[in-house]
Each structure stands twice: as C-alpha cells, then as structure tokens.
C-alpha cells in the first residue's frame, strides 16, 4: 500500500485515529494550479471584448519594438554595440510587462529585456549603454523605477522581492514586476525569491518568459516540471500559464496579477510561452542546436501577425494607421543609429573609479599597471609621430644629439 493510498482511506473494521491536522495540506492547492492550456484571447471568441484603443496601442508598440530589436542587432554587426540579446518574437511579453505597471511601480529586467525598459519610457539610447560596454547602466534606476538590466541569472528576483516587501512595510503603493527566462528558473535565487515572496505575501509578480532555450539547452533538459507555472504551487502562490505571443492575453493576465499584488493578495508566477526567433545573442550560432523548421513554426505564431489578424477582422488595420506606425518606428531607429554612430569619449581609468569606496590593493596595482601601459602607449605614439614627420627631421635630431654629446666631452 502506498502512502497516498494509506492516507486516502481507513481500513474498514479496525480503529484508526484521525491524523493530526498538520498532516493535511495547509492550503488547498487546486486554486493555485495553472490552466491546462495557455490562456489566449486572440483567435478566440473572447477577443471581441478587447478594447480597440488597447489593441491599436499594443500593436504600435510591438511594431516599434520589433524595429528596435532589428536596429540594435544591426548595430552589433557594425561594431557599434558590444552585445545584444534580441527579444524578437518576445515583444508581446516585453510590451505587456511595461504597460501593466503604474508610474510608481518597479520593473526588474534581465539582459534580454531592454525593450521592456524602453516600452516603460526609458530613452532607447540610454537603455543600450551597458550593452555598449560602458561601466554604468546608462540611466538612474530610481528615476525610472527600472532596476539595472541584470546579467547574472535570476539575481534580480530576490532584489524585486526585497524592494516590494520594503515598500509594503513602509505603506507605499508599489508593485514590483520581475522578468526571468526559463533557464533562470533553475537558479537558487529563483527558489529563494519565490519562497520569501509567498511567505511575506510581497506585492511582486514574476514573469517567466519561456522561450524554449537557455542558450543551447532546451527546456526539457533543465526542468522536468509539468510546466514552469506549476512551480508556483510549491511556494503557495497562484501560477498562470499564458500564450506569450498574445499581447492582449498577457496584458490581462499580468494586469490581474499586478492589481492582486497591489490589493495585498500576494505574489503570482506567470509563465508566458514564447520563442526566441534570433540567436541567444550576436555571439551565438542557433543553427547548431535547433532546426529552421522549428523557428518557422513559431514565425507562424508571430505576436505582430496575430495582432494584425485581429485588427484586420475589426477593420482597424487601415493603411493610414499602418503607415503612421511604421514611420514612428523608423524615426526611432534613425535616432538610435545617429546616437550610436557617435564615438563616446571614454576614459579607461574609469574602470577603477566606482568599484569600491576604498580601492583594494589589487585594484590599486591594476590601476597603476593600466596607467603605465597607457603612458607607454602614448609615448610610443609620440615617437611614431616624430618619425612620421620626415626622414630629414630625423637626421637633424640624430646629428643634434651627437653634437651635444661631443660638446659635453670637449672641456
Ligand atoms: C548565474 C549565471 N550563470 C550562468 C550565466 C550564463 N548564461 C547567460 S544567459 C544563460 C541562459 C539563460 O537562459 P534563460 O534564463 O532561458 O534566458 P534567455 O536567454 O532564454 O532569455 C546563461 C546560462 C549567467 N549569466 N549567470
Ligand atoms: Mg530561455
């Protein structure tokens, strides 16, 4: 007899004491379970109730977002941007995440979520500062209520929980929304963040963008969970599964989760099923671990194409609207190109300026080493310039030195 069978029924005819109350689950897990199918609005009968203004707004932001991704990727090829983890194919998640937040709320993005930061209102150039290779994040997180784009996986999650919990203790009306990838859910920080969030009932929403891969590792090789949304149940918070390419569905699910958190209802884990159409970054070759056929399947479920279908059915995709949307996106891309084509004036010594309040011995040593190298380089460059000034000038200099030396020997 298994433990579950033993728990389920008593043997007839014999006396069995009732189990202690603590033996039963403390919370009914059923309401926390995600739906069996990802929640969708586009392509369903419920799509008719989506507000027309919301549809057109979301569409315009998706088109702008796709253009931003394309432009940033092009800048990496031109050597103007060090690295860009594109969110092409994931724009619906990015745009919806930014849109459900109020001004006083906080966004905690990962390295793939530049677009969410831009959709929240951050200047498109500032948003790329870190990815350009600068030492700072390019914007004031407090001014925009956007934490720095986070490269160490999942470390933004405990930060989001801490901020949300602190805001609640202070009585501030603030919700934190943290973005993380499917791979990030295997990190210890994911566990710690969700556990604390649920125990404290912190006003925080976790959005997992499940794009199928952690670089080259497919989801099936790093998690055996029925879905990532199911993980929520183990922490005692609701899990929601949503079509990550359906912008209005995401807007609704995330909006509900954020408002629930705001009312003191505690955290929610939302898993959005989506796909990364581009390679992991410009430094990755995705053809080594996935097929073109798989990418093609997801292109058929493209977030922009889905919206265009709905807008067409409603007669909202007019030529004028499409043209205005495209023009706006082109304008943003042109401004981004112009800014990024200017060479920034960088001081290599800045590398050491903001690491610690008091520099460590190693840092001082490295600083001195770099300073010496830069000075030597500058001296070499000066010599080269002198040489380049001409052979005749070089002869004069040599003669002058010889004469000087000879003169010193004369007396
Ligand atoms: C703590 C930590 N470990 C490893 C890495 C290296 N790394 C960078 S991206 C990545 C894959 C992350 O995949 P996922 O969370 O699914 O996000 P995606 O890139 O798909 O958006 C890994 C392992 C890292 N940045 N941080
Ligand atoms: Mg991933």
Automatic annotation (TrEMBL):
Pfam families documented for this protein? E1_dh
Compositionally biased, Basic and acidic residues: which spans? 368-388
Task: Give yes or no: UniProt keyword Zinc.
Answer: no
Q: Which organism is it from?
A: Streptomyces chrestomyceticus
Q: Which Gene3D superfamilies match?
A: 3.40.50.970
What sections of the sequence does the record tag as coiled-coil? none
Q: Which cofactor(s) does the record list?
A: thiamine diphosphate
Q: Which UniProt keywords apply?
A: Oxidoreductase, Pyruvate, Thiamine pyrophosphate
What NCBIfam families would the database entry show? PDH_E1_alph_x
Query: What region holds the Dehydrogenase E1 component domain?
Result: 69-332
Species classification: Bacteria, Bacillati, Actinomycetota, Actinomycetes, Kitasatosporales
User: What's the protein called, per UniProt?
Assistant: Pyruvate dehydrogenase (Acetyl-transferring) E1 component subunit alpha
The segment annotated Disordered runs over: 1-21, 368-411
**Taxonomy, superkingdom:** Bacteria
Please give the SUPFAM superfamilies that the UniProt record associates with this protein: Thiamin diphosphate-binding fold (THDP-binding)
